[in-house]
Amino acid sequence: MSTSLAPSALESAHRSWAAIAVTCVLFAIVCLSWGTTWLGIKIAVETVPPLTAAGLRFLIAFPLFLALTLVCREPLYFPKGKRGFFAFVTLGYFTIPYYLLNHGEMFVSSGLTALLFSAMPVFILIFSAVLLKERIALFQVFGIGIGFFALYMIIVSQGLHLDYAGIFGVAAILAAAIMHGLAYVLTKKDGADISVITYNTLPIGIAGVLLTLTGFIIERPDFSEISVRSWGALVYLGIVASVGGFIVYFVLLKRLRPIVLSFVFIIFPVIAIIIGAWYESHAISRELIIYSGILLACFAITKLPARWLVRNGEAS
What we know:
single chain; globular; about 0% strand; mainly alpha; 13 helices
């Protein structure tokens, strides 16, 4: 009796492995693109003021998003009755937070910025409890507490406790993470029926115009002083980080469970720390490694649904 697999079974197995390989590659692309975003911002604001840098990034990304709406035949405008939500997304998700991130990175390393922003899913959890009345389990509260203690120790170990500019930078980045956390929860509450492409396209275009015009008025940038390296960073942020990362993330949403995909927020800070330390010639201290590990592990715990742990506890 032959024990060899039938050709159709072999083809099915090959397709299965190919699908897994493609998913792994896409996951790695998202982690790399988002992990390098923070260094891109750092390079951009070397010679471009933060308001102008954020605006130019979005103006570069907008035509590509607009093309996506045409190719995918998605509506450009939010549904009727969502004008208030549209204004919040434009200002509270794109305009203000990305200015805060750019401004914060003028005083904080790109790796630390990524670590600070990795707290964003924790704020999602908190806002979900307050606005959506979702239950927070005790182990999640424990993870949040230990995680933020580790974050405080990271800030202290980096010497920012004596630097007011550094503390302001940290506050700006955390404020951006809080606003993004609130935006995700309000989107779940009021914008679940809005296409992801529609959600991004017009708000990112308007935010680009608002930030750039405000930058021209307040910052008065001298374009002759913008380095080629900063221009390259802006193009990278606009095309690869904003549009490319978005497309790949959108594809992965159809391939992976949200809980698995959410661990991108745990992986990209590690990439950002390594790349940022290399570019900025900063040694990665043992304290940073230890506290970063604790921080990311605790934030990872907060992502696990309570019913999952309960079910596993009962099984044991």
